[in-house]
Each structure stands twice: as C-alpha cells, then as structure tokens.
Backbone:
C-alpha cells in the first residue's frame, strides 16, 4: 500500500477564546483540507519568539479546546523557542510563544511543539494494515531509505497520510505527492 | 494552463573542486530529478552559519562551475547568515557560509542565496504561454491569491514548474502537487 507523503507547514490551531482575542470572533473558512471537517482559515497570525517572529502564519480551523502551534525544529530555533517534539494534542511541557494580530495578543503558554512525524490513518486503512492507534512503525521511502519511530494515529475522519516536518522532508528529499510504504 | 508547484528544500550545488575537497571525488547519483540531467546525490553536507548549523543537507548534481547554497529566508535567519534573494546562478553579493563533511571543509564565499520564486519553463511551454526569458509575471493560486514578481527562466532542459521556498509555501499554503495559473 502506497501511503502519500504530506510535508507540514508551520501552522496554528486556536481555542475559541484565543480566536476571539486575536480576531474578535470565529475563524473564517477559506477552503477545506484533506482531514474531514478541518479547513484552512483566511486569518493569519504572527508567532513571536525570544529572537524573532514569523508573520502571516496560517491557521487551521475549526477552533479546538486548546491553542496549539506547530513548528519545525529549524523554525523553533530561528525565533528562539525551546520546543519539544510531541504528538499533536500532547502539550505536556510544550513551549510557549506570543501570538499577535492587529486586533490582539495572546500569551500562548504550553502551546508550541515540533510535530513528531506520524502516520495519519483512517479506520478502514488501519484494519487493512493491521495497525493500532499509537503503534510505532517504520516506513521506507521510494529511494529505499528507512524512517523509524513513526507513530500511528487512527481516526475515522483522517485521510491516510504520512506527515513530517519540512526539516525531515529536506533531509530525505521528500515532497508532498511522494509516497512511502510500511515496513 | 495549470503549472505545477514545487516547493524548494534547502540544498547545495557544488563545484568540482569543492566536491573533491568535501568528498574526495565526484558526487554519486541517487536518483534523477525532474530537470533533465540533474540528480539528487547520495552525499550530504553540513552548512555552518554564525549562529547555527544545518546537518545532512542534500546536494544536487552534477557539479557546476560555482558552488551555490540555496536556503529559505527563515533557514538563513536560523543559522545567522545575511543572505540576499537572488535568481539561481546570480551570486553577486551572495552570502557566505562554511560547508563541512567528515572529509573536509570549504569556505563557500559568495555562495549562499535565498532562491527568488520563479517559473521554470520549457522552451515549448514558453512559446505556448508567449513568455520570454527573465520576464516578470504574476500567478494565481487555486484559492485565488496572487503572487507577483515571479521571474521566468526558460531552458530546453527544464520541466515547467513554479518554484518557491518553504516560507512562501507556508504563507500561501501551497504544496508540491498544487498548481498555479498565469495571470
């Protein structure tokens, strides 16, 4: 089974409260993304670290229970943030940053992670591949290189995709549209 | 005409002399890339700036007359390099860095650029689109956003592709495999 690669841009998820502080209201969908019910919003935000800022960072909606900022390792280093690699949703000892728009500012404590590479997997593909939620697997690239420590996340709304940051994508020379196979 | 988007990983091109210094010989092809005659090499190199290092940066072969290091703006900022945006091949007042492998080290003076976004264009597509080499055009994304100041580069060996850095790709939420249209 060929699993499509999707390289991850830096992006932000917002809580309802933080969306109101930063934009005065709810996020505005621009277009849907592959994962059911999620969308790219028209809004963007500045991420401020101790040594620099990323402007015009895109936000994925809808609002979540917690604000979460996802960077690559080099992004975090660039703006002076000490950020751990974590699975999305696990904000234990996550990093902190400031989010700012012309409308407002949020101190996003324990919000900021380097998204650990993972296999997003639909329920039906998980059954086909005999995978369980939070399994740790290895995948092979089309060049035959092996990536270990890939965490499996299964959810009925997920499209089956292999997600990695742009740093890892550069190292393995992977692009969105390439594929990997399970080992 | 739909023009495919290819987001650009940080990468290095080497002169023959620098390849010998860094690896003791010529680059080894791992696999070909879309532009005729070019390949991803099996070798990788560390790029050292004033404030940090990128390890395992991939090298595109074959060797060129000049060593050229291509970064995104946030990459350059991350490792403390003052680097101008330039068209590939234009190294006037380019930045400098150190390239290092276990085999050797090169002071890569006037080598380092942020690759300006550009339309790689085959000769036949250029005729179809009525474009001339170094024309400056605008393109529209599938979301209807407009990117201006796109430089056209025409060469018989080129696949027709719109190239932009990871920073711009994150801002416009573009992935390799998306497409843009000429305005």
Residues:
């Amino acid at each position: 089974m060929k699993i499509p690669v999707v390289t991850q841009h830096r992006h932000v998820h917002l809580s309802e409260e933080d969306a109101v502080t930063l934009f005065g209201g709810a996020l505005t969908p621009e277009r849907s993304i592959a994962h059911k019910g999620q969308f790219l919003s028209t809004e963007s935000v500045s991420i401020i670290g101790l040594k620099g800022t990323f402007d015009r960072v895109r936000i994925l909606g809808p609002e979540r229970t917690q604000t979460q900022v996802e960077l690559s390792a080099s992004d975090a280093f660039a703006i002076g943030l000490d950020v751990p690699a974590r699975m999305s949703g696990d904000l234990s000892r996550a990093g902190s940053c400031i989010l700012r728009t012309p409308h407002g500012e949020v101190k996003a404590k324990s919000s900021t992670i380097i998204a650990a590479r993972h296999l997003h997997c639909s329920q039906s593909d998980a059954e086909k591949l005999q995978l369980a939620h939070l399994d740790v697997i290895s995948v092979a690239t089309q060049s035959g290189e092996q990536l270990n420590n890939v965490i499996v996340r299964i959810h009925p709304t997920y499209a089956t995709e292999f997600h990695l940051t742009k740093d890892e994508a550069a190292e393995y020379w992977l692009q969105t549209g390439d594929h990997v196979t399970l080992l």
